[in-house]
Structure formats: structure tokens, C-alpha cells
Amino acid sequence: MESEGENCVQLNSPSSVTDGDIIRVTASSSAVQQTLFLIHSDDVSLKVQAAKEIRRLTKTSQRYRRHFCNAVKPLVDMLRSDSFESNEAALLALLNLAVKDEGNKINIIDAGALEPIIGFLQSDNATLQDHATASLLTLSASPATKPIISASGVFPLLVEIIRHGSSQAKADAVMALSNLSTYQDNLLLILRAQPVPSTVSLLKSCKKSSKTTERCTALIESLMSYEEGRNSLISEDGGVLAVVEVLESGSPQSREHAVGALLTMCQSDRSKYREPILREGVIPGLLELTVQGTAKSRTKAQTLLRLLRETPYPRSELEPDTLENIVSNLISQIDCEEQSGKAKEMLAEMVQVSMEQSLRHLQQRAMVCTPADLSVPSCVSKITSK
Asked: How far apart, in whole angstroms, are the C-alpha atoms of residue 308 and residue 271?
């Protein structure tokens, strides 16, 4: 059991204390005190040594992150040094101190770390830029720090890193933007930095199942709430297609963000965005989501399919507004033979799965076996023969 105190370890009971426990607690306390003493010294080399030790001890230990909260101020002071070694050691130590520790995140910001970190984002030294981006990503995860980071004017710098940074820095920068986008007041500020082109470019280059793709699509979905964001995606070469490709082959969460982005677009102005979305071959992916997506994805996919049909309203009571009818209507409008064929096949599979699920449900309720020679409903053969 860990204590909430700064530099103590609470043992279960006096009777459970062994010589080994006492030695470990004493050694741990001694290491913390010695390192804190060194980080406050005037000797630069000793401060660097202490920062490296703090980084090592806090890498995987929440307990040590609490123990070293008093090291935040001297570490932030090291960020203002002209020494690369001091800058790097302090950045990495602060990064580990901030991981999963809200108190340390706030203390780091309050100690004035944001200004030098933002300076490193503009550094010609790629190593410092990478470490600074990772630090900003970690700090941006705290709700308390989002408004402060937003007010620092960091958005254009993060967008520039997505455009020109290293592979890891690009991923960290888009994740930081995604974190900051959850604070509603930030979205317009982010949009002013024109993040869509560089985010789409990153989306095209990374694996569709990656965490980076998930954050890219989450950011794009948030930005689609604004006309400026939607226009930027439409005008970007391959922008809508990149989102459609994630909808088809991304992780479940990425697909949910992708269909959410397209749905937001279509709901905002169906007449404007319907054709650009249809043109990128979205129907097969939407059909698959209606069967295999998350609960939110299924609902969003069905709603988007209704909006994409020739008319989003039921035609008559004689022709029910079923998903099969909606998609059949859409397929009849598709010019591309390859896309149309794939859509028909997907729809047939969707109906088949739906039918099988219904039969299993009836079997369970009736507690009888369904005859093996039950035929596939005629709607499936009609769809596949179109």
C-alpha cells in the first residue's frame, strides 16, 4: 500500500516489518533525498546527473513521481540553460514526472515550463523538438492545463510539426491537438492554424489500425462541426477519400470517428456534401459498419446511408424505409461498376447475417430446430442479381 505522503512508504503492520523491508525503505528514502539534494545544487553536472536519476526512477513508478514533486522547480530552471545536456535531461525527467500525475502536470505548468517547452518546439535541434512535443502531449492530457496551453499560442507550432517534424513528433503533435480539441473553446483557435491539410497528409501515411490514425480522425471529426473545417477537408486533394479509407479498414474507434466526421458533414449541408462523399465509394464500408461496427458506428452508418440516398425521406407506406431499400436505392445511383458490385455483395451479406440472427432468435424462443433446407429470402437473390 502506498502512502499519499511525499517521501514515506507505509507498511501493513509493525509485525509484518522485516529487516529486508527496512533496508529497502531506507535505501529508497536515501536515494530520493540524495537526488533531491543534487538537483538543488549549483553544480551543472550534478544537476544533470540528478535529472537523469529522476527520469530513471519515475519511468514506471507512480510512488517516485510523488516523491520527486519538489524537483519540478529546479528541473524547469534547467530548461532555461544554454546547455543541451541540461535541457534534454530536464525535459525527459519532467516528462516522466507528468505521466499519469495530475498534480505534477499542474505544478510543471505553474513553474513556468510552458515557455521554454514552446521554445524547443521551434528549435533546430530535432531531439529537443521531439522531447518538447512529447512533453506537451503529456501535459495536454489534463483538463486543468488545456486552457493555459491554448492561451500560449501553441497551435500553429503543433501544426508545423505535423507538417515537417519527425515521424514520432508528428504523431505526438496530432495527439496533443486531439487532446486540446476536447476543450470546446479551442476548436476555432485550432482551425485558424489550418490543421486539416497536414492532418490528412499524416492520415494517408500512417497505418489505418494505429493510434495515430485514431487521433487524426478524432481531430477531423471535431473540426467538421465548423464550415471552415468541412471546406478545408473537401478542398484537400484526397481528403474525403482518406476518411473513407479509415472507415473501411481502421480500428473500431477510428472507424467510429470516420463515420462520425462524414455524418456531421452530411447533416450540416446534405446537398453540398452528399456527392463528394458518395464519389469516394463509401457505401461498402458503411454497409459493413451496419453489421460489424460498434454500437455508435452502426447507428451513425445507418443514419448516413439514409442521408446519402436520393431522398432522405420515406417514399410511401407501401415501400417501407428499410435499410435494404435505402441501400438498393443508393446502389442504383452508383456509376462505378466495381463499387456497385461490391455494395451489392455487402448488402447481400448484411441481409444474410440479419436473417441468420433472426432465425437463431426464433429457435431460442421456440426451443425447436429450424429445418436445414430453409432458403435464403428472395430479397438477397434480387440484390445480387441486379
From this structure: 9
Left, alpha or beta for 120 (phi > 0: left; psi -120 to 50: alpha)? alpha
31-50 pLDDT, tens digit per residue, is: 899 999 999 999 999 999 99
Tell me if residue 379 falls in helix, strand or coil. helix
Q: At a CB cut-off of 8 Å and minimum separation 6, what does 382 contact?
A: none
DSSP assignment of 39-90: HTSS-HHHHHHHHHHHHHHHSS-HHHHHHTGGGHHHHHHHTTSS-HHHHHHH
Cα torsion through 194, 196, 199, 203, rounded to 10: -170
pLDDT at residue number 313:
52
The angle at the Cα of 342, spanning 341 to 344, to the nearest 5 degrees, equals: 65
Residue ranges of the chain with pLDDT lower than 70? 1-28, 310-386
Asked whether 131 and 91 are in contact (CB, 8 A), the reply is yes
Sort residue 11 into left (φ over 0), alpha (ψ -120 to 50) or beta: beta
Contacts by residues 61-67 (CB-CB < 8 Å, ≥ 24 positions apart): 62/2, 62/100, 62/101, 63/2, 63/9, 64/32, 65/96, 65/97, 65/99, 65/100, 65/101, 65/104, 66/4, 66/6, 66/101, 66/103, 67/6, 67/7, 67/32
- Position 335 scores a pLDDT of 52
Tell me which amino acid residue 238 is.
G
Q: Residue 323's pLDDT is what?
A: 56
CA distance 384 to 386: 6
Q: Is 316 helix (H, G, I), strand (E, B) or coil?
A: strand
The amino acid occupying position 237 is D
- C-beta of residue 185 within 8 angstroms of C-beta of residue 150: yes
Nearest CA among 361, 349, 233 for reference residue 292? 349
Give residue 143's Cα distance to chain centre: 16
Write down the pTM of the prediction.
Answer: 0.76
In angstroms, the CA 216 to CA 203 distance is: 6
